[in-house]
Amino acid sequence: MPADSVVGIPADLSLAMVEEKEAELAKRRQEIRRMQGNVASPLGPEPNFPPQFLCIKPLVYHNIKEQVPVPSQRFMYTLAFMYFALIAIIIYNISIALLSFVFGGSGMHFGLSFVYLVGIPGAFVVWYYNVYSSVVSEANSRRWLGYVGLALGVIFDIWMAVGVSGLGGCGWIMALGEKNFLVFILAIISASLWTAHCLMLLLLGIKYFRMASSAKPEAGAPADTAP
């Protein structure tokens, strides 16, 4: 008996047949890789927020018009405006602290004003995205996180509106204790903006509570599906 038949190799095996088999296996491997690359696509759309900038990459998918039910869209657009307004007020707060420092104010106050930049990603994570997710998914866990997040957002606004001198917030106490007239006027504007933001966020929180209460799933509804 020939040795090649003993080991199970056909006698008529040629190099061309081996190369053909190799090409077929390579084609199958490429197809498997392509299918594995497409596995994640049915699970959800690609992240688009925050917008890509330098080392910052999108982390979540955010589309009010597409994901939020029509009755809640106006509320979410208003809440989104409040989030971007917060970003602008934080930057304005730093500008006033800098101007105060230039005119002889506290260096510590100016330095600590940068700490509140944490409020930009913090507000998104703590209150905005939790409310957004709860409106989209109607998940109880997200709803309660939204309640807590909005309460923390209001507390943050109150702290900034008070504006204790030397702690970075350009609010009422800092403004009323300012000796430079220009800084005084700009700080009064800052304190007013923080106060207005606080009141608006409080009103939106009340509206959110009413919306969420009226939209609670009935008994036997599916369990939470928070994104």
TrEMBL record:
Keyword Membrane: yes
GO CC annotations, alphabetized: recycling endosome membrane; trans-Golgi network membrane
Keywords assigned: Membrane, Transmembrane, Transmembrane helix
Coiled-coil intervals: none
Transmembrane segments: 81-104, 110-132, 144-175, 181-206
Domain of life: Eukaryota
Predominant place of localization: membrane
Subcellular location: Membrane
GO biological process: protein transport
Family matches, as InterPro entries: SCAMP
Membrane topology: Multi-pass membrane protein
Keyword Membrane: yes
Protein name: Membrane-trafficking protein
Species classification: Eukaryota, Discoba, Euglenozoa, Kinetoplastea, Metakinetoplastina
